[in-house]
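Follow-up to my earlier ticket, as requested here are the two runs.
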Amino acid sequence: MSRNKVMVPESKQSMDSFKTEVANSLNVNLKQGYNGDITSREAGSIGGEMVKRMIAYAEQNMPK
């Protein structure tokens, strides 16, 4: 049972697209749905890169 709750349901599709884009740039093959066959390292790389890109985007778009 997933403990992750989608706080903004409208963002789910955008986040899935973003995750796929990051995975492709890291040469990790994601499928639609369950991806339990990828390694912890690959999953961590995807999540880490997503966070890195979101922070960079926020820093570029914050008022100074």
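Run two:
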Amino acid sequence: MKVVVIGFKSAGKSTLGPLLAERIGFRFDDLDWRMRGAASRELGEDVDVRQAFRRLGVERFREMEANLLAEALSEENLVLSLGGGAVLAPAARELVEGCCVVYIRVPEEDLVRRIRSGGWPAYLDGEADPEAELRRLLAERLPRYEEVADVVVDNPDGEKPSRGANLAFEEVVEWMKSRK
């Protein structure tokens, strides 16, 4: 059994994912961690995901991400957090079929505030108005996350992560029971 946690950048996937894994009794992993390691090996130096995206380019980055996703999903009893764009490719959506997909949903204004305070992501490099482009991406991606999700957990600003993890746990357990 595998649980895949999706959502936009800064939704809280890497915070709620480990809490959910602990409650289920599964191991937690993060595709961004795997990507960082793979990109660092390929580039011959330690890079973060933002640097990997910039230096590898979108095509190579997404190719590596898809390969790492397939590798991770070969494991059992795993809660895997994905990068914000990872599940949007048709091949990735096929890979997560059969997994319980948990979408961490955050109100748009909260996401924009979180991202602005953390710094614009690499895919907005060169944008004259990064916030406008971010909002365009949100309008495009958020409905697609909902289409893929088996479970939706709201994570607005001000909510305790434990609340979202508890809600996700309850819904994931119900999803697992329905598959037996």
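The only thing I checked on run two: The chain has seven helices and five strands. Let me know what else you need.
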